[in-house]
Amino acid sequence: MTTPRLSTPDAHEPHVHELPPVRGVPAWVETRLVVRRDDGGAWRGRLRFTDTHSDRTAETAEIFCGRTEAELWQSVQALREHHVRDLYRSLS
């Protein structure tokens, strides 16, 4: 029997979500979304990239924002793979 969870994770603490990898140059790039809720209640997110060839990690600023977590995810899902790849390349 599992013990029920008595508290929910603190939304102010960043949570990391795996996204599909993108093709970088020369290797695949792991992509993650780091999400948190700010003091005003808005949801904010940044992309974290890890090059699987070099293990180099780079992050964007908090370029995603929404009044709700669902609104933030709509912004993320609206990006096409080439947009995500261009964001990664801009950090190189």
How would you summarize this macromolecular structure in one to three sentences?
The chain is of the alpha+beta class and 92 residues long. It is 23% helix and 37% strand.
List keywords for this structure.
92 residues, alpha+beta, 2 helices, elongated, disordered N terminus
Helix and strand composition category: alpha+beta
- Measured between the Cα atoms of the first and last residue, the distance is 49 Å
Oligomeric composition of the shown chains: single chain
The helical percent reads 10-25%
How many domains comprise the coordinates? Answer: 1
Q: How large is the count of helical segments?
A: 2
Gyration radius over CA: 15 Å
Largest sheet report: 5 strands, antiparallel
- The arrangement of helices and strands along the chain is EEEEEHH
Percentage of residues in DSSP E strands: 35-45%
What is the averaged pLDDT score?
Answer: 86
Low-confidence stretches: 1-8
Q: Would you count the extended β strands for me?
A: 5
The gross shape turns out to be elongated
